[in-house]
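Hi everyone,

Forwarding the result from last night's run.
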Amino acid sequence: MSENFKTIQSIIILANPTVPEASEEARKVQQAWQEMSSVTTTLATIDDLQAQQRIAAGEFDLLIALGGDGTMLRAGHLAAPVGLPLLGINLGRFGFLMQLRKDDWRAAIPRLLSGEFKLENRMMLFAELLRGDQVLNSYQVINEVVVCRGQFVRPISIFASVDGYNLASYVADGLIAATPTGSTGYAMAVRGPILPPELRNILVVPVAPHLSMDHAIILPEGATVIFRPETDHQAVMSIDGHDPVVLQDGDRVRVSASEHALKFVIFQDPGYFYRNLSLYREQNPSRNGFK
């Protein structure tokens, strides 16, 4: 068992109510835990405010999320601030972030009880929205921060700097700052490089660049990146695919490594990530640069 992981005494099982099978499968997961152990189980939906408050209070030793990668992102935002390990059961189409499938979660329960697993610490980002000298808001990021055009289908200008030095001026639909985990998300969809999840780097990828630098850049963990859009039409920012935040001309989005890490429960050997890539390529031969 990974270091710093206490014996499982209380778990919370969160189902995504928008996934048709999730609630019923979550009840089966809870029943199996009750039959196979004395662990205290709590069943809720991922939208349940009381469950979210209990997670924030540190009441649980493990969070099990049922759905797809979007569900894992939402669960990760709940789990990471309190260092709560997270295990995903995939009910979606593929699931880069999910460790178990619908037909193999039952066999994982004895392994969890006996400590036959590892905790994989995934790097997160910390993003701040700045207007003048004021920090308007801050965000914890699992996959990516995106600064992009809004409702008008026209590229915008985005100036990027690293540690106070000018990096590039982009004319593009948008600019992504992603974690290694996020390299298999939106960044991969725009043909960015794929980074193994154990790395600690910041990936900067332009979206549909027009007559400007079109290469992705991989930065060290200690870097601070600032995106500054300049446009006469709408620009927005989005965190992990959440609802966009409208930016004013001259606003800045500052991105650096977060003090938090997302703790994934892993049963497989380190090669699981590359096997997932191979499986994805087989299932999607024409997508995301895979031939």
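The chain is about 20% helix and 40% strand.

Cheers,
N.
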